[in-house]
Amino acid sequence: MRIWHNRALVLSAASIIGVIGIASASLLEPSDAGFDDHTVTVVQGAQQLQVPSNLMPSFSRLALSVLPTGNATSCVTRPQDEYLTTSAAAVGVDGAKLQAALDYAAANGSNSIKVFRHGCLIGQGVRDIATDRVPELNAGQTKAVVALVAGIVADRGWIDLDAPIDAYLPSDLGDTEHRARTLRQFMQLTSGVQVNHVTGLNFFTDISRAREYFSTALPHAAGSYYEFDEITPSVVVYILDRIIKQHESNRDFQAFAQAELFNKLGIPASAYFWQKDRAGTTTGYSGLWLRPLEYGRLGELLRTGGTFDGRRVVSKQFITQMRAGSNANCGFGLYVWLNSCRSGETQVNTDYPSRRTYPGEAWIQSAPSDLYYSLGLGTNTFVIPSLDIVVTRAGYQELDTVTGLANLDLHGAFPGNAGGPGDHEFFRLLMDAITDMPVSVRATIQNSGPYDRPASLRVDVAPFLLPLTAPLGSYTALGPNGAEGCNALRCRAEPNDGILWVLQVPPALLGVIGLEQRPSG
Known about the structure:
The longest helix is centred in the middle third of the chain and has 16 residues, at 232-247. Residues 1-66 have low confidence and may be disordered. It contains 19 helices and 20 strands. By secondary structure, it is an alpha+beta fold. The chain has a domain at 1-66. The strands form seven sheets. It has a six-stranded antiparallel beta sheet with strand order 9-8-20-19-18-15, sandwiched between helices. A hairpin with a 2-residue loop joins strand 5 and strand 6. Helices cover 28% and strands 15% of the residues.
């Protein structure tokens, strides 16, 4: 244990909202005392200082660049602390090659890009210091967070993922067929519901996404057909909210998520805001605005099989279930994408802009087969268990956009698809940086050369057009696809407070400037 004495050196930096923060730091000399021996490197121009993380105030951590230092071979970040860092070389990574991968990601629209190995932050993008405290719309990555909350609820025995949802719904909502689907089918996107992406991408004026499900056709048998849908994730949240309130009357879905997930990862309430629809239900398909700085904490939870700082948050069994594909799509688990498809298995993309079936291959062929990841509009948390690596990325421009357009490949250029040319190139560069790659892991990388999937300009218009009445129902509750039990103003027996989520936005500004205390877990 060491404490640090002063040799004055004053550093200044501008925060991401234009506030000038003046931070005093110390050139360090150790002596014995009762502080944790965790340091970060503060960089200003050519000057570098090592500063104990528990002595650095939050506003100076915001304004100053935090880069890898030291020679630790593994790290355990506590909830109340920022990430621990080490050099790339200390964890078997070539620093120059890692930088090439980070530079590639930054040049292709990454507002934030971070690489962790053995729990240590070893590199980040050039824009992270300015952007990683600004909440971004997590879009599809929201579903992965919903899955983790569902896992915590299931671990308590409050829900059965394989039971018909009939048991968890109000008795007057929906017909027998809609009520017979299961939460697992919803979370594997195999409920068989008809998809209309125009209504699915209605981010702000939903009346009730959960109740829309009960007025939407079910053209496919349950569990038999994978199709990326933006309706059923909100049904999952609707059910979780009801079950949580039955067991803990003082908590709703978001309060439970904060207490049982975010607090345990050290994510403060000021790090995010989460939209609700007009019926007052938290949106499940999208709507979580979480700052990119926190993605690594989600990745750490997944990397360790459900623990954080040595404490169990969600069961290892549930994390294993998240990584299991279905017969309808081997490349998709419980709201996460899987790189582990094998020849002969059925593999299906998001159908943006066209539905494509692949012959059982890795989504990202330049990465190991055990890679799995969340996927949003430029938001990702990638986990490679065999290499003990986590990669987090945020940016509304997908990594694949430029290379997809250059190759005349709409699959790569269109947002929301898994495994395009940009993802391939980033992971090709990153894997080339690993100096201790086991032979057995390298053998699972299907293509360590240039991206070679055939380009496609095909567009399937049906999911964007049919049924023609779907947008009317989503926006106004009118017509056959209107949310069941709702009109344009309200839904029966629901809180109908969806607009109040905007009140979460001002408190999140405290997180933007770093004026917060991370929860201790």
